Amino acid sequence: MKTIHKSAKLANVLYDVRGPIVDAAKQMEDEGQKIIKLNIGNMAPFGFDPPEEIQQDMIRNLPDSAGYSDSKGIFAARKAVMHYSQQQGIAGVTLDDIYLGNGASELIGMATNALLNDGDELLVPSPDYPLWTAATSLSGGKPVHYVCREDDGWMPDLADMRAKITPRTRGIVVINPNNPTGALYSDETLLGIIQIAREHDLVLLVDEVYDKVLYEGVKHTAMGSLSTDVLTLTFNSLSKAYRSCGYRAGWMIVSGPKAAARDYIEGLNMLANLKLGSNVPGQWAIQTALGGYQSINDLIKEGGRLRRQRDLAYELITAIPGVSCVKPQAALYMFPRLDPKLYPIDDDRQFFMEVLRATRVMLVQGSGFNYPDHQHFRIVFLPHEDDLREAIHRLAKFLEQYRQRHAKASSVVPMAPKKEAARA
Ligand SMILES: Cc1ncc(COP(=O)(O)O)c(C=O)c1O
Question: Which member of 140, 146, 220, 276 has the lowest number of beta carbons within 10 Å of its beta carbon?
Answer without folding.
Answer: 276
